[in-house]
TrEMBL record:
InterPro entries: Cupin_2, HNL-like_cupin, RmlC-like_jellyroll, RmlC_Cupin_sf. Gene3D superfamilies: Jelly Rolls. Residues 41-104 form the Cupin type-2 domain. It comes from Pedobacter kyonggii. This is Cupin domain-containing protein.
Length: 133
């Protein structure tokens, strides 16, 4: 089945904050009208964020593929095209692709002053493999 991408894949994201290959295509920047940013994030199979928090929360809208979302201390939740994840403020979590398929989501992230994310440690291979098995 051929698919047509809605947005370009964008630029590679830093391995300081992501494991595997992930890309960002910015859509909306914080400005005088918006206290948030929005971007299209593409995760290749196995790619994922580090554990992280958002001081004012985040919304993920999955537009392609399959992946996972997990809050610290909780079970990982499968996410797929059409799912919307509303992440509360200051909740430690990660999200990314499944081991075998890519996952693309639009991330809408609110700011507090100039901060929108606090990056923490990577999701270990052991943590990830427990989720995707």
């Amino acid at each position: 089945m051929n698919t047509i991408e809605i947005f370009p894949i964008g630029e590679p994201l830093s391995n300081d904050w992501f494991t595997g290959n992930a890309f960002l295509c910015p859509l909306v920047s914080k400005d005088k009208n918006n206290e948030f940013s929005a971007g299209n994030v593409t995760f290749e199979p196995g790619a994922r964020t580090n554990w992280h928090t958002h001081p004012k929360g985040q919304v993920l809208i999955v537009i392609e593929g399959n992946g996972f979302y997990q809050e610290q201390g909780g079970s990982a939740q499968p996410i797929k095209k059409g799912d919307v994840v509303n992440i509360p403020e200051n909740v430690t979590h990660w999200h990314g692709a499944s081991a075998t398929t890519k996952m693309v989501h639009i991330a809408i992230t609110n700011f507090v002053d100039e901060t929108q994310v606090t990056w923490l440690h990577p999701v270990s291979n052991e943590e990830y493999n427990e989720v995707v098995k």
